[in-house]
Amino acid sequence: MSLGLPEWPEVGELLVATVQRVESYGAYVSLDEYREKEGLLHISEISSRWVRNIRNHVRPGQKVVLQVLRTDLSKGQVDLSLRRVSRDEKRKKLESWKKARKAETLLAQAAQELGVSLDSLYGSAGVKLVEVYGGLYEGLEAASKKGVDALREVGVEVADAETIAKIAQEKIVIKGVTVQGVFEATVMSSNGIADIKDSFMKAEEVAQEHEATVKIYTLGAPKYRLELTAEDYKKAEQALEQVVKYTQQAWADLEGTISFTRE
Predict the structure, then answer these.
(1) pTM for the complete prediction?
(2) Of 31, 79, 136, 227, which has fewest CB within 10 angstroms of its CB?
(3) Residue 4 backbone zone (phi > 0: left; psi -120 to 50: alpha; other: beta)
């Protein structure tokens, strides 16, 4: 995997590597993001504590997140460190690496369907997604949400945009955040049940207008649970505020009472 990357990693960069062989003085690794590049993880850079047995820390086939200390172009070797990478840095790097791998796989699928090479499609479409959205995966994520428009807006050709958007929407599921609470609602009119149902259905429309989806279902009258899902907490809170506001206004015209308790 090396789409959009330079030939050699930069000093200080975090990268994912696979341990190939372990010696008494260190471990040799292949750099997953840089094709055919090898690196050395010296025993002194494995742990901040004394390493009695190197094989207790690294083993062949193991995936590791390492920091680049030096690059020696004449030897074709990269010196690396494990001990300088924090747990949080490791977690974030692995997350971004997995997303990059998935993005490249999806773009390769699109290239195959279009009958072009992966490098060609990256040059004509992928680069534009990186420039505008900050990353290839982020661009495909936008295509999953907005469809072809997310790609056409950044200058991707129609045929490419349609194929990429189709694959993105099939393969990338946007995971949102969910907030919930309980309505306690009563209506005294003869059409009480119908009025409650109608008002909650309209509340779902209000949520959609604010980029959210909502489910409201009975817990046994007079209590009804609300589950609202949006892309992030900010949008979820904004949508929730509007949904609750709408229901309170709707009940003002009904013979009954309504209250909402956040969970």
Answers:
(1) 0.66
(2) 227
(3) left
